[in-house]
Amino acid sequence: MDPAELLALDAEHVWHPYAPMPGQSAPLLVTEASGVRLRLADGRELIDGMSSWWAAIHGYRHPVLDAALAAQAGRMSHVMFGGLTHEPAVRLAVTLTELAPAGLEHVFLCDSGSVSVEVAVKMCLQYWASSGRTAKRRLLTWRGGYHGDTFHPMSVCDPEGGMHSLWRGVLPEQVFVPEPPSGFTDPPDQSYVDTLAAAIERHADELAAVIVEPVAQGAGGMRFHHPGYLSVLRELTEAHDVLLIFDEIATGFGRTGEMFAAGHAGVTPDVLCLGKALTGGYLSMAATLCTPRVAAGISRGELPVLAHGPTFMGNPLAAAVANASIGLLLERDWRAEVGRIEAGLRAGLAPAARLDGVTDVRVLGAIGVIQLDHPVDMAEATRVATGLGVWLRPFRDLIYAMPPYVCTDSDITAIAEAMVAAAGSS
């Protein structure tokens, strides 16, 4: 179909994420992708600095992942997971329990990151209901977080800076504490620790769980905090009989320099949410892991099953490509890859600190962020970045990148230069 015709039909019928309908600006038309590059209909190629919203850690058209997908399609593309099982899902569950923090032994495979958070919350609520403690149905989190766009995840996103203030009065009202102090290397602040302790103690009788993004907050603000706060949360939740959920949808599979961000603190939560990079960006799949304590608690209840069952749960295609993606990650020196990207981003983004309007430049693992003192001019920033051959997707006051791990040094240099230029233009 002619590109102009496609874009006209897109404008008429396709509702894009976080955009009005009809749209106010035409999206870029991608015709194919390979390696870390997107090819546009007009012939341009862009380095994907976003890993397709943080998922395509191996880039595009990777022969190992392509082969895994094709081989599985030749056997079966899908079979219901109720009453049936299959090797790709079993292998994936075993691998996840081997990689995850010790003690997370049970895996619920679901469709997307938001759904994995929904499942995590449902696990915790049902655990306490099964224990006869039905008053424990609220969640505590810190501000600056983002956990997804479905209803319970929206309720624990930042209530002011997030996208979900429209739903105030409709969503469950959760307990919020201030955002954690910034700085991955800055030791925990005792006054903040005292704030956490006071809030958890005060609300313990009504709290089902504490839920946070460990070490790196994602779409709520791209902020980094010291791993010590995770240890504090583990101690406090255990002391006050509250469950602990880590949302590692964005941080899992090496993004922060550890396989899972919880590894920076050596902490095991009661429930762990995974997604995004799980399948290397090929298909939508997520996972919610829990401890035997949580599973056994649910099984003792009046309703002894987890009341959740997605149609495409454990999809064989997604599970097969997830197995291949994790295998590919483990075969390579992913720590060195992420460390190399971190060093490249630090060097490449350093000039941004001297720009007018820039309040902070920060890097952790394969995450680079430039923060402004004003909202980004999205149209101009995108024009500048694509003019330099890079795809970025800024939001609010942030220009950031989460590149695929297979980027070369020159790719990272180009991404950083585009980010600095975009910041200067905004």
Automatic annotation (TrEMBL):
It is found in: Cytoplasm. It catalyses: (8S)-8-amino-7-oxononanoate + S-adenosyl-L-methionine = S-adenosyl-4-methylsulfanyl-2-oxobutanoate + (7R,8S)-7,8-diammoniononanoate. Its EC number is 2.6.1.62. InterPro entries: Aminotrans_3 (IPR005814), Aminotrans_3_PPA_site (IPR049704), BioA (IPR005815), PyrdxlP-dep_Trfase (IPR015424), PyrdxlP-dep_Trfase_major (IPR015421), PyrdxlP-dep_Trfase_small (IPR015422). It is an enzyme of class 2 (transferase). The keyword S-adenosyl-L-methionine applies. This is Adenosylmethionine-8-amino-7-oxononanoate aminotransferase. It comes from Amycolatopsis pigmentata. The lineage of its organism: Bacteria, Bacillati, Actinomycetota, Actinomycetes, Pseudonocardiales. The gene is bioA.
